[in-house]
Amino acid sequence: MKLLVRLRNLLQFQLEQFMLRGVLSRLLVIACAMVLIAVSAGLLVYNVPHVGAAGDGDPGSAIWWAFLRLTDSGYLGDDEGTLLRTVSTTLTVLGVVLFVGALIATMTQWLDDTIETLEAGYTPIAKNNHILILGWSNRTAGMVKDLVESQARVKRFLDRHGGGRLHIVILAERVTTAMAQELKDQLGRRYNPRRITLRSGTPLRADHLRRVDFEHAAAVILAGREFGGDSAVDEATIKTLMNATSSSDEKLPLLVAEIFDANHLPTARRAYAGEAELIGAGRIVARLLAQNARNRGLSWVYGELLNGSDEQIFVRECPGLVDERLVDVAGCFERAVLLGAAREGALVPVHRHDDDRVRVGDRLAFIARSFEDCVPTSEPETVMTATPVERRERASRSRGHRRVLVLGWNRKLPSLLAEFEAYRRESVTIDVFSLRPIAERETLLARQGVQFAHASVRQLEGDFTSYHDLARLALADYDNIILLASDWLGSAEAADARMVMGYLVLAQQLEQVENPPFTLVETMSADNAALFDAAHVERLISPEVQSSLLTQIALRRELHWVMEELFGAGGAEVVFRDASKLGVTATNDSFDTLRRARAGEDEILLGIMRAPDTAHPRLQLNVVDKHAPLNLVAGDELVVLAVPAASMSVGAVV
């Protein structure tokens, strides 16, 4: 008995395994069952009159008779006699179950599985010159929106790669309908499913990279996961770079990748064999936070340049200006502001050295409204700059002492502390207030090589969302308060929810302070920026900054060199100059006049920041009419790009 049971189980298991192979196996089982039933029924009735051909007992005719009743119930009325009617009725019922039910069910399931597979994006694509985004995060839809809206820049990019129309391919862990809906919500009428392709897979596998035709992409964007472990994010990025290198024998496309820990940048450069622009995202955002804390209003400038507003950064070759001094050609552009020359992976600012000249192959960097505005409209003119003595005096000035309170901890904080340490002309004391254990923080700082010889850093333990914990701090004694978004909560929504809670607790504590310190809030979503609204508060939406950097650099890699100079450690710095202290209020000075005056101080005039209570737009970069009077009043400021004195042609004292 046990042997029979085991034999039955064996046959049942083998049949199960055979049917699970696929739709063809299931169809074969159904066909075999139908043949077996037809043969059995035919042999049962083949001696019955009127069954075989011409009425004789032919087994083949009897089997054909049974097969017709099994597949078509219309023959049921032709049978006579109890046996034939019983057998034919049974065959008809079995035919409905097998031929109609099982067959249709099998084909329907196969069709559903096929459509589901197609919708899930498992089939490979064959494209040329597409833009490939590896990974899906809370920033992906925003990056697609930036690419779709940058029509002129995208057209120039595609022209350099052989033409064609913009096609964006996204490789996500698993494609869902929610992703397509998020793209529709972001793009609105601009959404075109024929120009956006979603595919399921991970960039950590070579076959999944081939699924999105990695080798034939014009540019690849690899954004790090915003939320995760301190090192796990960069580890996955570097593994992807190595995987991409080993998976292709052809020329690799330009890859723009995001590295959060600047210490991993050299390793990432070794991991990818093709052209790559590796963005130290954590370092750049940290520098923006540090600069904004020291210069109120900078969030307006960053928002204008990085978030797709009217004024953007462009690079363009100007062969007619070759061999001219950079300081002399700055006034050649009526509709743009010259920042410097992009060459050999770096930006040379206008006032880096007085004798810097435009070289063959240089791409000049501008703030402008369009690429066409970056065309010279006049001849170069000799500009007088600061003398070596003036530069040494400026370099030796101290900016006094600054006290900074940092609330929270994320992976950008080590870079933020290192940035404050780099400001040697400014004495700074920084208190870091976080729930993270102090010993763990110190270990992380040591592993990243962050040391303090100039800045004084004190680690405090507490929860900035707690009234009791925050009340222990003397908030009135600080010049700046920086609230950092938490990247350990798992999502942007959770991080901003905690940030809103902490901000409200802080706002209540500051109600008792007569002159509240300037507060800078890092938020993870533009939808929540309006929640942090107060006269002494500014917001930095770090995911938008990072996404804008990735998309713009993917379309024009030289922009990375410009961004590193403007936003990287030790580069040129955007600062504000009080118009009243410069004596330019209540005058008829134009933008062009003030540009010449700031050039004499080795500064590039970018625009005007109006006082909050004026009728003019608050921030005016690259003023349209550069010869019209600006009519500056008390409270207005000049927005300038100042080149560090240490980089001047003279030996500055730092």
Automatic annotation (TrEMBL):
Q: Does the keyword Flavoprotein apply?
A: no
Give me any GO biological process, just one. monoatomic ion transport
Q: Where in the cell is it found?
A: Endomembrane system
Transmembrane parts of this sequence = 27-46, 83-105
UniProt domain CASTOR/POLLUX/SYM8 ion channel conserved: residue ranges: 284-373
Query: Which Gene3D superfamilies does the record match to this protein?
Result: NAD(P)-binding Rossmann-like Domain
Major place of localization? Answer: membrane
Membrane topology is: Multi-pass membrane protein
Does Oxidoreductase count among this protein's keywords? no
Q: Which Pfam families match?
A: Castor_Poll_mid
Record keywords: Ion transport, Membrane, Transmembrane, Transmembrane helix, Transport
GO terms under cellular component:
endomembrane system
The entry's protein name is Ion channel DMI1 protein
Native source organism of the sequence: Salinisphaera shabanensis E1L3A
Q: What is the lineage of its organism?
A: Bacteria, Pseudomonadati, Pseudomonadota, Gammaproteobacteria, Salinisphaerales
